[in-house]
Amino acid sequence: MSDYSYQDCLEASYRVNWRIEEVLGPRKFDPAKRWMPSALSAAPAIGCLSEAEKIKLSHVEMGAYAHLFGYVEEFIAPLITGRAKAHGEGEAFEALANFVGEEVKHMHLFRRLRRRVDGQLGFSLKLLDGEQEVTRYVLAKNPGAVLLLTACIEWFTQLHYLTAIREDSDLDVLTKNVFRAHWLEESQHAKMDHLETLRAFSAMETTERDRAVGDLIELVGAVDGLLQKQSAYDVENLAAYLGRNFSRAEAEEIYREELKVKRWTFIASGVSHPNFVALFTQVTTPPQRERVQFALAS
Ligand SMILES: [Fe+2]
Ligand SMILES: [Fe+2]
Q1: 12-39 residue pLDDT tens
Q2: What is the full DSSP assignment across 175-216?
Q3: At what angle do helices 286-297 and 274-283 cross, to 10 degrees?
Q4: 6-18+30-297 maps to which CATH number?
Q5: Which residue(s) pair with 171 in the sheet?
Q6: Span from the CA of 64 to the centroid of ligand 2 (angstroms)
Q7: CA of 237 to the centre of ligand 2 (A)
Q8: Beta bridge partners of 34
Q9: Ligand 2 centroid vs 73 CA: distance in angstroms?
């Protein structure tokens, strides 16, 4: 059992709280540097790009990475609003309401960061749209499934910063600043997702838990569909940025590696996070976990 508490989360959140201006300020990305860490970039695996082009690929990837966080926060904010309301009052309500406020701030942070990327690249990146439609689709699923997906996302923000961003010594400084700030606040979100997921599952009968597992599989499938779409956009964005026409084989190689790294970044790094695994194990039975593993493998 975790020893997380809403009160500790709220206190920690007040200690680390930051303003968008402090994180972004007038700072710009350094065009000579990588904007995405190697561990979350397709660049190291691609053979058809020069070293200079790989650096530019990381700029395009940063636009998509920042956008995808803002994209999922669109459904996390109303989800947690509903959870806060259900508590009515007290510590849990206060901690969750504060969580929502932080998520809205992050949405603004990532919008501004995307504008900064576009401004420095000199054109608007092609990025996923349909946030409202996706939010409606996600929130119509079983709440246990949506909370598990949210916990998976918030745990991978921790892993990305600690293992990929902080440790990359040659990474752009603005990237480091932004994702350090995001990591600081997301740490409390992940713990509250854990508490809320346990709460949601404790109120469910076996059949409803089965439904939650089925919905989680559908949600992960939908995330994968979005990643496929954005990976194709990344190929187009890179071609526009480089002013280069890729051959079919080159475009296929970039797409394949981009999708592979995005699947690691936005799905596998979350579902394999030890804290997510501990939570998932606590709320599911071995046959339910097998269903999910089978779906992930295919
Ligand atoms: Fe966030
Ligand atoms: Fe969050």
Answers
A1: 999 999 999 999 999 999 999 999 999 9
A2: HHHHHHHHHHHHHHHHHHHHHHHHHHHHT--HHHHHHHHHHH
A3: 130
A4: 1.10.620.20
A5: 34
A6: 18
A7: 28
A8: 171
A9: 7
